[in-house]
Amino acid sequence: MNDLKNKKSGLLFGSYCADALSLGVHWIYDSQELVKNHGRVTEYKAPGSDSYHPYKQAGDQGHVGDQSLCLLNFLAREKKWDPSMFMEEWLGMWPDYNDYIDGATKATLANVQNQTDKTQGGSDSVEIAGPARIAPLIAFLSNSSESEVVKAAVEQTVLTHRSKEAEETAIFLAQAGYRLMHGANLHDTLNETAPEWALEKAKSVLSENAVDAISKLGPACSISSALPSVLYLATKHGDDIEAAFIENAIAGGDNCARGLALGILLGSANGLSAIPQGWIENLKARMDLGNFLSQN
User: Fold this and answer.
1) Using one digit for the tens of pLDDT, what is the confidence trace for 277-294?
2) Spatial separation of the C-alpha atoms in residues 270 and 241, rounded to whole Å
3) pTM for this prediction
4) What is the dihedral of CA 61, 62, 65, 70, to 10 degrees?
5) Which of 2, 151, 278, 291 is deepest in the core (most CB within 10 A)?
6) Cα separation of 177 and 64, whole Å?
7) Alpha helix ranges (H) inside 94-140
């Protein structure tokens, strides 16, 4: 496997593995309760019947990861990026969907009822979920220019998250993922592409452990909390995917969406070979990802 293929594969599997690792403890905000009941999360766990994801199994994706898989399967089938066509695909997910439906999705589904152009119905959400879904786009467009990847990432994001915060995060993740996939250095790339406000917040807690740092930054879904938390983990554990993904999971809160974004950065920086083999083998979407990579 050449270096680009290794890093492209790492970007994709990194995003989905970090999401799946967090799924079993998703949206638990009491870190002491999380550690008491689940310990150090080192393998995939089923979320359980009393969770937000009662029908999910170990190795599945969360509800945002499912939307990212929708994007991956669309690109695999159509072999092109088209926001209007993808929006129809995304809208088709929901009538039979049996997992959690988030606020941005509900608002978008309501908004498009009044739109002739369904790409213009996105919510005003400032949550990281919208831009965190873009791993398949970055991988699919790996041979395109950086500007094309950024344009596509923003187009994908604003379909459901039409806020300046979401757009800024999409631009960052697209630029960073693209550059890292093509061999750029992680530290330099983060300093060159990450929003300055988020980097400053991340660096202010680097001396803390992950649970305490993310508790201070905020473990919730909003970009104002989640993006600095992702940057903290990427900076503190940049060359250790296993530690970064585990620390993200046990910090609780919206660890799934953080994981999708974190996996883009560290997967593309370190490559597929840096991801624990058990996580790859036990990922339910492994075959879909493998088929997608074999075509691209």
Assistant:
1) 999 999 999 999 999 999
2) 8
3) 0.98
4) 80
5) 151
6) 19
7) 103-111, 129-132, 135-140
Q: Read off the tokens for 289.
A: 């990802």
List Cβ<8 Å contacts ≥24 apart for 117-121: 117/84, 118/84, 118/87, 118/88, 118/91, 119/83, 119/84, 119/87, 119/155, 119/158, 119/159
In whole angstroms, give the CA distance from residue 249 to residue 31: 10
Element (H, E) at 229: helix 223-236
Look up residue 288 and give its amino acid.
D
| 157, 166 Cβ separation under 8 angstroms | yes
Give residue-wise pLDDT tens across range 146-173: 999 999 999 999 999 999 999 999 999 9
* Residue keyed to tokens 């992950």: 210
Q: Is 262 exposed, middle or buried (0-12, 13-18, 19+ CB in 10 A)?
A: buried
> One-letter amino acid identity for 262?
L
- Give the Cα separation of 167 and 151 in Å (integer): 10
Q: What is d(CA 127, CA 225) in angstroms, rounded to the nearest whole number?
A: 9
* Alpha-carbon span 202 to 220, nearest angstrom: 15
